[in-house]
């Protein structure tokens, strides 16, 4: 055959070099591998953290993961060939590592972690033992994702594509983006008792772990990265172009608040208040053997049996923020204490006491390594804020609550009237011998018939009980005890104590949302003891105390409620799960559990819908209040 014919024919046969350059790549195989890796990551994350595999959300996850796979390969094909495979492998490994990290966060914080918190993890080296404790055999499932990736590495396929295949992949990417968006926003495919659909949850990303479970951890990670580092989507709260009249809706909502005097109004009027935020205080510790002082106060004061400390983006500081202001912490901004330091809260608890001429102070036996409390408390209106930078307390991990009381009681006990806020730290995890407080008190509990971690936990909270005992003695010496109310609440349950360990030392059913139920005790000598069974949360403390102390305040300034006025109150969490006397709604599984058959009526579905709508409004309006520094415009 003539050479020119052979040359022409060779250009058309599959084995020619020119054809190999354009075709002998495997872009669709890469799409398949990316999809399998992402899908395995998402399903493993759901399974080991929430016990879920195949449910109604599975189709969402399939669509999203396939969409991301197509988009990712499309982007890789636009890059120089030398970068494609290294970036491909690196990206998948990053997603696996993120999934492992989020699984650890889920076991410690009971929720996924936003990128807004990632770079503060360096402050948390003291949590190393908690991280180790959070790792369990379920994490081995992530080896499946690594296995898929490693198997593909050995096959040594090239990522190449001619124009036609690139066009097809890009076109499919566009089609799947549109299909996925339509599918997840279509009302028919969403639980009809909720006030927002899956697409809104994805766009605004306030319900972090709901998105991670329903749409996949991959989808959550990509959107969270976008929100934090590329473009924070706040169009839902765009009040410069307020087409939906959100400010008007907010004012209408606040004006609906009607506070009625009740049997508890002014119960403690003109008394002093010492409000104590107790680190990791839980019901399992308040026994006659472990915390005799607090145990006595519990049964001789007001014991709020159904008080909850829901964990938001940050456990301790977000509870603190909600208690101080009566407003929910932001579901998008990372650290509310820092983010809203310049906001004005004229009806914050401290301001109510300031207006009546009380001396006000806040004390903490740690520094501002984690949170910028000094700025926040000064802005709130406290006359004095002191921590280990000002007090003669040697900073270590962790410092003594007894030393905190010894350093501070004399600073206010001779004041005519006072409101004092304490933030304790001795009972902070980890619960092992790295904590000097535990070493100090361990002998008291070494023979208890509980496991080692619980012995260490009891050793830590004993320091708090000893501090309370010291406080009561000193107030008695200064003749201030009879005119002083002490209110103490747990900022969150002990996070490194497992649900199984808690159940091992209690007869109550501390499962699900009930795990967040922590103590709230309000006590003064000689009062009539009472168990308060109304459900309430941290955000309800300020309006409730305002009522108990007879403060003349504008209750429309609060998202929380005075529980003595409210009745049938609902406690809600950052993922929009909630609990009431009727039952609990789990936003992850989208299932409502009824506590008693008497509540199963024709109106039950409407009850769930109304509560879901009300909770969404509370989060939305709290965000507007904070973002717009609303009270500066209306009250200052």
* Major sheet description: 8 strands, mixed
Helix content: 40-55%
Note the gap between the termini.
95 Å
Summed over residues and divided by their number, the pLDDT gives a mean of 87
Nearest-angstrom radius of gyration? 28 Å
Strand coverage percent: 5-15%
Shape: globular
Number of strands: 14
Parts with pLDDT < 50 across at least 5 consecutive residues: 1-23
Core attributes:
636 residues; alpha/beta; eight-stranded mixed beta sheet; disordered N terminus
Notes on the protein architecture:
With 636 residues, the protein is α/β, with parallel strands linked by helices. Helix content is 47%, strand content 9%. It contains 26 helices and 14 strands. It has helices spanning 3-10, 17-23, 27-50, 58-78, 81-109, 115-118, 128-134, 142-155, 163-185, 198-204, 208-214, 217-230, 246-255, 292-298, 315-325, 336-339, 349-354, 373-380, 401-412, 436-441, 452-477, 499-503, 541-548, 563-566, 604-627, 630-634, and strands at residues 272-278, 302-304, 307-308, 359-364, 384-386, 418-423, 484-490, 520-523, 530-532, 536-537, 571-572, 578-579, 583-586, 591-594. Strands 5-4-6-1-7-8-2-9 form an eight-stranded mixed sheet, with helices on both faces. It has a four-stranded antiparallel sheet with strand order 11-12-13-14, with helices on one face. The chain has a two-stranded parallel sheet with strand order 3-10. Helix 18 (373-380) links the parallel strand 4 and strand 5. Helix 4 (58-78) packs antiparallel against helix 9 (163-185). The longest helix is centred in the N-terminal third of the chain and has 29 residues, at 81-109. It is globular, with a radius of gyration of 28 Å. It starts with a helix and ends with a helix. The model is unreliable at 1-23 (pLDDT under 50).
